[in-house]
Amino acid sequence: MLSPETIEIIKRITPVVAANAEAITRRFYPRMFAGDPEVKAFFNQAHQHSGGQQRALAGAICAYFSHIDDPAVLGPAVELIAQKHCSLGIRPDQYPIVGKHLLGAIQDVMGDAATDEILGAVAEAYGFLADVCIRREEEIYRQQREAVGGWNGYRSFIVDRKVPESDLVTSFYLRPADGGPLPAFEAGQYVTVKVDLPETPTSPRNYSLSDRPGLDHYRISVKREPGLAAGAPDGLISNHLHDVVLAGEELQIGPPCGEFTIPTATAADRPIVLLAGGIGVTPLLAMAKDLVHRGGHAPLYFLQAARNGRVQAFNDEIRALEISSDAVTTHVMFDAPLADDLTTGRCDSTGFIDADFLRRWAPIDDASFCFCGPKPFMQSVYAILKELSVDDDRIRFEFFGPRQEILAAALVPAQGLRI
């Protein structure tokens, strides 16, 4: 446990750290990459370029310091971090590297205000949190290793099939190259794809498993991201998978990870509403197919929001959910429909999700809500749910970046936003 003196110091400096948190994290990453360049391979440089990684770390530091006297509150955040770390193969001996450069960045930004007493307290607080994460990660690694068909690190998979789902999305059906069994996973989890591009080193990428557990393959569905705008390394891996990787070739895959899974209460008798925007459909489709496969579930509502029929993925699979179970209600909404989308009935409505629609369509007072998609979509959905007085214990979402960017959306009026 942390000493009372450390808790008091951290509480005292929290406002100052919060005011300088992003400056600290923006100093931290270049400092760490220069001093210990081997860790750079774990970090998505597109997120570095956009500032998302820096803002996410700043938010995490502020959340930890704000709850320094009740760290149990951070249990969900620790689980998210531990799952992500295990997807990348982070080791215990890498934590001191982060701690060293975090303290150095604080000292660089705060100057003489970062006294030995303050730096000592921050070091103790960081060490405490690191130990919590390391213990949880050791447990996850053990579970992965001991599962039937399980593994740690990377395993060779054959691309059994490569199936276009829309103008932007392609699915990859993956089978173990060794012919061995696949470990079970929870719908909503992701796997890690490691691709070595000699001309441009890249970090591993996480892709949600887009089909249900219990099959003889894994499926990931990858959206082609835009090219290298303004020097940002966006799209390197997605374009490589789309353009270069063919059926029959091998990919290096990490074991399933992630905490964005079906709420436990939902699996019994509470209705569930799944709200998917764009490529955010992938983990939610896996959840929906898993719930239908299990059978005997309370009402399931699945909404997919997309631009139009050219970019919408999985139309047939989503329609099949409703056909396969009387408990399932689906709805497809396009915000920029094409002419044939309307004449063929590919979508059920046009426009954007709003409070009036959800109030009419879903059991607002009883359901659990899971949503995933681009940031503007998620900000809008979260604000709508809060407008409808849905408690946070009935809301789950998956988002890379500072969760505050989603939660803060409830402070402004919800509005339709393009995905």
Automatic annotation (TrEMBL):
Pfam families: Globin, NAD_binding_1
Annotated Globin domain residues: 1-138
Residues in FAD-binding FR-type domain copies: 152-263
Alphabetic keyword roster: Heme, Iron, Metal-binding, NAD, Oxidoreductase, Oxygen transport, Transport
CDD domains: FHb-globin (cd08922), flavohem_like_fad_nad_binding (cd06184)
E.C. number: 1.14.12.17
Record PANTHER family: FLAVOHEMOPROTEIN (PTHR43396)
Protein name: nitric oxide dioxygenase
Natural source organism: Paludisphaera mucosa
Gene: hmpA
